[in-house]
Every structure is written in C-alpha cells, then in structure tokens.
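Re-run with default settings, no changes from the original entry. Doing this only to confirm the output is reproducible before filing.
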Amino acid sequence: MPGVADILFRGVEPAKAKVLCVFVHGRGQSPEEMEAAVIRPLSARDVACALPRAGDKTWYNARAVDPLTDTTRAELAASLEGLASAVADLRGKAPGLPLVLGGFSQGACLSLEHAFTGHAAPDAVVAFTGCRVGVTTDDRPAALPSGLPVYLSAGSADPWIPVSAFAETAAALGLAEARLRCDVFPARPHEVSDAEIALFDSILSDLAAGNSPRMEAPR
C-alpha cells in the first residue's frame, strides 16, 4: 500500500545539525539505496537526514506521465500525507533549521508535488530525474512558494521521465517564480550522477552556512 512505511535516519543528530534533509527514493528502491548512492557521497557536514520508505517500494502505481485517476490521486494523497509528516517530524526535532527536500525519479516527482501544495514548504527542492505527476489538463495543486530554490534534472533518453515532461515541469516552476536551475544530461543512465550530487552538496553547504543556495556547482 503506498505511503510511508518507516523512516531511516542518517547523518548527525538533529540537535547537532545545521541543515536538515528529507530524501525520497524512487520506484522499486529503498532508503538504503539512496543512502549509498546519494547521501554517503556528500561532503556537506552537520546534516541530519530522514529517508522515508514507501510501502511496497512505490509511492503510487501509475507512471508519473499518465493522466491522474481516482486511484492514483488516492495513492498520491497517502504518500504526500506521509511525506508531510516526515518533514514536520524532522523539523520538530530541530526547530528553525533550513530543510532541503529531495528525491530521485518517483521520489523526485513526489517531492515536487509536495512543494506545489504550498504546505510545509521546504527551503529548497532537489528533484533528480523528476516531473509533475499527471498531465497538463489534470487539476493539480499550483501553490509553489514564490522564490523557492529548485534544482531539476533529467536524462535525454530516460525511460521513466521523458524530456517533454521535464520541460513542462520546468515551465510550471518558472511560471510559479521558483529560483530554478535545470540540467539535462545526454545519454545518462537512470541514476544520480556525480554532477547532481555535487549540486546537492552545494545547496546543503550554503544553507548550513546561513546562505541562500547559489546552485553554482559545475555540470
């Protein structure tokens, strides 16, 4: 059943942290895989990380680019409710600290949908190979906070997130006045690259130092 089954905590204790992070895994993946592929390579210090685990390893069963159905809306709502609780729980352990919400693939899509609800807004969003869930004719939330720093990436021939869906999401973020950086990586496998991790690292380091994310890491 979609939704948050449990949460893996990594990094420093929230009381000792300077920045918080919630990172969401993709379809068929696990928090442990995200820890190994994304969190462990980070050099940013004083980061408290929460990695939610999806029930049945999926946040919703449809493809992100499929039109929304009642079933998908219900599954998405359950997963978004669990993600909002994970964000609130981590913030409650370290009030006042900046928080980055990120994810890969389906986890990136879920993170973007959370941001577009406008509730419990993070201080930055990192969406590796992500897009909005549904199609442009669907009724979807559009309350992204103006000025929210967002990093959005894609592969040129990704099997799950086509460049057209990435581009539609970039346009939606632009119209919502996000502080947006986008990267498309030619022929990149369906995985997180070193360049994406470096960008994530820079966002965490900037926020930990009390600065707004510059998102200036090289590709």
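Helices lie at 31-39, 70-93, 106-117, 163-175, 194-208. The chain has one domain: 4-208.
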